[in-house]
Design brief:
This is Replication protein. The chain is of the alpha+beta class. Helices cover 42% and strands 14% of the residues. It folds into three domains: 164 residues, no CATH class; 45 residues, no CATH class; 100 residues, no CATH class. Strand 5 and strand 6 form a beta hairpin.
């Protein structure tokens, strides 16, 4: 989110509007990184990602009102961080019909994308009619903002609409039903804090049924450092924390700090290693290559600890980082 914050603050002046835009952006990026993880795709070089979702469910996920979500997404699209589209193209032909008062109404017909034919039953007359409606939205989100880079949904590259509206209504899987259930349940304060969201509703139509059980849950995670068989491999695998899903990044930093305490035999200094790794992660998102220098300093600390039996390896590491200028470039963690 630190990539988006300066861009949003530069374009949105009102504090509440900035807060809402950041909330919506956080929910969308969390959903996308979860989707990338579940699909087994690589996120290291992904600059923009397009996902199919139902934007009416953003209020259910973020806790904001529908109007707040609509204004936030409209502003984010103006900035260029996201782009919404039904993936359809309007045809040149126009259909003329009559409204309830008998007046002729001319409307444009859309073809392809998420526009699909579905049937409705009139509640008063009981007559079943068919209509072309939009089943959802394709949303492109910029994951790595850069000058001149704007989100764009490329309609001709999109797959067929993954949602069957008629089947959804028969089994009650509709956005309206999800909104009603959200109003009835008691929401946890954690989900409204902006740190984490229950993004399953946004991905309800993005994944096959068998994959929806592993939407970035704790049970589906494996250790980042499971394949590190030596202390040196562990040190160089610490940079994987940067590519961790935002929802699990704090746990990854804690895991890395615990691993360093065990490797360096430095009991009681886990908080120090946690702060060092956290500052390195923040620096990487600011464009500072912090993990490379940290790895070199950790290797020197490993050698010194093996040869000199250091009493406090954490203090030795801090001195190494101070001497190479890492502390000045990245920021001094509180020891």
């Amino acid at each position: 989110m630190e990539r988006y914050r300066p861009i949003i603050e530069a374009h949105i002046r009102r504090r509440e509007a900035r807060h809402n835009a950041l909330m919506v952006m956080r929910a969308l990026t969390q959903a996308i990184y979860t989707l990338i993880e579940v699909r087994g795709q690589s996120q290291e070089r992904t600059t923009t990602y397009t996902v199919f979702t139902v934007m009416d469910l953003l209020p259910v996920v973020t806790g904001l009102s529908s109007d707040q979500c609509e204004r936030a997404t409209r502003k984010l699209q103006e900035i260029g961080l996201i782009h919404k589209s039904s993936g359809a193209l309007p045809t040149r032909t126009r259909v003329t019909s009559r409204d309830a008062q008998g007046n002729q109404v001319e409307r444009q017909v859309y073809k392809g994308g998420t526009w699909t034919t579905t049937s409705f039953v009139n509640a008063e007359t009981g007559v079943r009619t068919e209509a072309r409606v939009c089943a959802g939205t394709w949303v492109a989100v910029v994951l790595r903002p850069a000058p001149g880079l704007t989100a764009r949904v490329i309609a001709h590259e999109l797959p067929p609409c993954p949602r069957d509206l008629t089947a959804d209504r028969k089994c009650g899987r509709t956005a309206w039903q999800a909104q009603q259930e959200a109003r009835q349940e008691v929401r946890e304060s954690l989900l409204l804090s902006g740190d984490k969201f229950d993004i399953a509703p946004l991905l309800r139509w993005s994944l096959p049924e068998e994959e929806k059980k592993s939407l970035g849950t704790e049970d589906s995670r494996t250790s980042l450092f499971a394949d590190a068989t030596t202390p040196q491999e562990l040190v160089w695998s610490l940079s994987r924390i940067v590519s961790t899903h935002p929802q699990h990044r704090r746990e990854a930093v804690q895991e890395g700090a615990a691993a360093l305490v065990e490797v360096l035999r430095d009991e009681g200094w886990e908080k120090h290693y946690y702060r060092v790794l956290w500052r390195a992660t923040e620096a990487e998102f600011q464009g500072i290559p912090a993990f490379a220098q940290l790895a070199f300093a950790l290797e020197r600390t490993l050698v010194a600890n093996r040869e000199l039996y250091l009493h406090r390896p954490g203090a030795w590491l801090a001195r190494q980082l101070e001497e190479c200028g890492w502390m000045t470039a990245v920021g001094r963690p509180t020891i």
